[in-house]
Write a structure and sequence with these properties.
29% of the residues lie in helices and 28% in strands. It is an alpha/beta fold. The strands form three sheets. Strands 3, 4, 5, 6, 7, 14 and 15 form a seven-stranded mixed sheet that branches. It has a six-stranded parallel sheet with strand order 10-9-8-11-12-13, sandwiched between helices. The structure holds NADP nicotinamide-adenine-dinucleotide phosphate. NADP nicotinamide-adenine-dinucleotide phosphate binds at residues 44-46, 49, 126, 130, 151, 153-156, 175-176, 180, 216-217, 238-239, 241-242, 263-265, 313, 316.
């Protein structure tokens, strides 16, 4: 290995052009970690929030952006026995994915699913860990239940639609254009709602109410979500694209026995994320290896053009995942 690597850093909080190529030392694997030579790095909305100064990385994480990557393991830290140098993996990262090398806990790596390329594999970890832990573990989605996901064409949304459909739920999705709605239907949604033309509350109430809603919008959507829930329904909040503050009458939570919850992945413990990885390997990786579920790919940019990748994401013109080619 050479001692330094190319990476993209956030030079200061701001617009996409604050992302600049730089040179950094190649990370060393800590106890229980591996170092991956990165082939591709997935781009996620939290990277854009971090770049804008709205989502600080945990204190012990790399300041470089990038929460997921694929590539080849090139170094093993003490105590790592489950992987070997040369293994091809995709991995959830504490940060640092926009770089030629990255260190991450060995237990946050997963094998590249059979028949899948490294480009597609790089786009799995962040949304699959998030959707699995919020929709199935926290939200307890069951076969036959009505599931509503907002932002259905997002990286998170395209994953949530496919997994909920694969596990037998009835999927409703909202999105901001007819093209995006068509993509949601292709992925297994029984109803896609263009929120610019239609009222998702009316549509869900007419269907009997949502048993589970996965929401990233927040703001005015919060009281609407509560109206759209069936009795005993659950609302899982994973982001607040329209803000976290709203005036809310909690009486319905009590009278209709609703559950309001949420989580964010990044600050969780290594052990908690390892448990999610284990669940995914058992329950979801066979679906990826069989091709029943696959990441929806929007576009690829070279590492040096990370700023253009962020601009594409923030335009919200994309459907599915944006990826950086690193090697
Ligand atoms: N809690 C967690 O652990 C966790 C983990 C990963 C991601 N997230 C969050 O999940 C969300 C999706 O992430 P992603 O990487 O999949 O992002 P993404 O692909 O960029 O999707 C976000 C989508 O949200 C919609 N949107 C954007 N701005 C909006 C606004 N102001 N109001 C309403 N809708 C808006 C857009 O679709 P339309 O055109 O259809 O509006 C956009 O495509 C992000 O908010 C991210 O921060 C949370």
């Amino acid at each position: 290995m050479t001692e330094t690597m190319r990476a993209v850093e956030i030079t200061k909080p701001g617009a996409p052009d604050v992302l600049q190529l730089t040179t950094r030392p190649i990370p060393e694997p800590g106890h229980g970690q591996v170092v991956i030579k990165v082939a591709y790095a997935g781009v996620n909305r939290p990277d854009a929030l971090q770049r804008a100064g709205a989502y600080a990385p945990p204190l012990d994480a790399s300041d470089l952006p990038g929460l997921e990557a694929s590539g080849e393991i090139v170094a093993l830290g003490a105590g790592v026995s489950e992987w070997s140098v040369g293994d091809k993996v995709c991995a959830l990262l504490p940060g640092g994915g926009y770089a030629e090398y990255v260190a991450t806990p060995a237990a946050h790596c997963l094998p590249v699913p059979d028949g899948m390329g490294l480009k597609e594999a790089a786009c799995l970890p962040e949304t699959f860990f998030t959707v699995w832990s919020n929709v199935f573990t926290r939200g307890g989605l069951k076969a036959g239940e009505i599931f509503l996901v907002h932002g259905g064409s997002s990286g998170i949304g395209t994953t949530a639609i496919q997994l909920a459909h694969a596990f037998g739920a009835r999927v409703f999705a909202t999105a901001g254009s007819d093209d995006k709605c068509a993509a949601c239907l292709d992925l297994g949604a029984e109803r896609a709602i263009n929120y610019r033309d239609e009222d998702f509350v009316e549509i869900l109430r007419a269907a009997g109410g949502a048993n589970l809603i996965l929401d990233m919008v927040g703001g005015d959507y919060i009281p609407c979500n509560i109206k759209a829930l069936a009795d005993d329904g659950r609302l899982v909040q994973i982001a607040f694209l329209q803000g976290p503050k709203v005036e809310l009458n909690f009486a319905q939570m009590m009278t209709r026995r609703l559950t309001l919850t949420g989580s964010t992945l990044r600050p969780q413990s290594v052990a908690a994320k390892s448990a999610i990885a284990q669940d995914l390997r058992e329950a979801v990786w066979p679906l990826l290896s069989s091709g029943k579920v696959a990441p929806v790919m929007d576009s690829e940019f070279p590492l040096a053009e990370a700023a253009a990748a962020h601009a594409r994401m923030e335009s919200s013109g994309h459907i599915g995942k944006i990826v950086l080619k690193v090697a």
